[in-house]
Design goal:
Number of helices: 8
Distance between the termini: 39 Å
Number of strands: 7
CATH architecture: 3-Layer(aba) Sandwich
Structural class: alpha/beta
Bound molecules: S-adenosylmethionine
CATH topology: Rossmann fold
Largest sheet: 7 strands, mixed
Helix content: 25-40%
């Protein structure tokens, strides 16, 4: 298993995936032509972050799983050597560690948007990963049962919005009603205002 930003699904999505019309882009407020600074606080394998960076956003990524962070770091290093995606990878910076602590003591400029996609223990969720890859990833990373704790520090730090990706029928993060939701076939994006 490895992160490949230059080829495979990432390349297909970059070239044919629907650009700013994609759910993650709309949820992060890119539709009107804006390219906000985004902090992806649950980076995983960086697929969503790469979509946003490919659309022009500066994206900081936080990942606490040493394995996922190592896969990401390796993927970013290879992308930096690829003529087609090097400029995109240069817009992505990885921070290793727990997001709750990092959000509460964020070292850089406040991001306009914070994006959260914690692992949800729902095997029905469709994924770009194969079933085998997904099972391996979930076995290592676990089910992010502490995800509710991310919403308040994210809303305190974000300047414009917090976008939360959930399986379509999953309960609200921290039980909090969002300002609005964007519904996809299998996922939902809940958008919260700062506060
Ligand atoms: C579902 S995956 C994210 C997938 C990602 N959106 C993508 O496109 O590849 C969730 C990831 O968030 C990470 N994560 C969850 N809670 C975290 C936290 N509090 N701090 C840092 N990383 C966290 C997990 O380790 C896991 O890798």
């Amino acid at each position: 298993m490895r992160v490949d930003f230059a080829g495979g699904a990432a390349e297909w999505r970059r070239k044919h995936g629907g650009g700013r019309g994609q759910g993650v882009a709309r949820a992060c407020g890119l539709k009107g032509g804006a390219t906000p600074r985004v902090l992806d606080a649950t980076a995983g394998l960086g697929r969503d972050a790469f979509v946003l960076a490919a659309l022009g956003c500066e994206v900081d990524l936080i990942e606490r799983s040493p394995l996922a962070a190592a896969l990401l770091e390796d993927g970013l290093a290879r992308a930096a050597l690829d003529a087609e995606v090097a400029a995109i990878a240069a817009r992505m910076r990885l921070y290793r560690g727990g997001a709750a602590e990092l959000l509460a003591n964020w070292p850089g400029a406040r991001p306009e948007v914070i994006y959260l996609d914690p692992m949800f223990p729902d095997t029905r969720r469709k994924s770009a990963l194969s079933k085998k890859e997904m099972q391996a990833f979930q076995a290592v990373v676990g089910a992010d049962l502490d995800a509710d704790a991310l919403l308040a520090p994210a809303r305190a730090l974000a300047l414009e919005r917090v976008a939360v990706k959930r399986p379509r029928h999953a309960p609200l993060l921290a039980g909090l009603t969002p300002a609005y939701s964007l519904e996809g076939d299998s996922v939902r994006f809940d958008v919260y205002l700062p506060g």
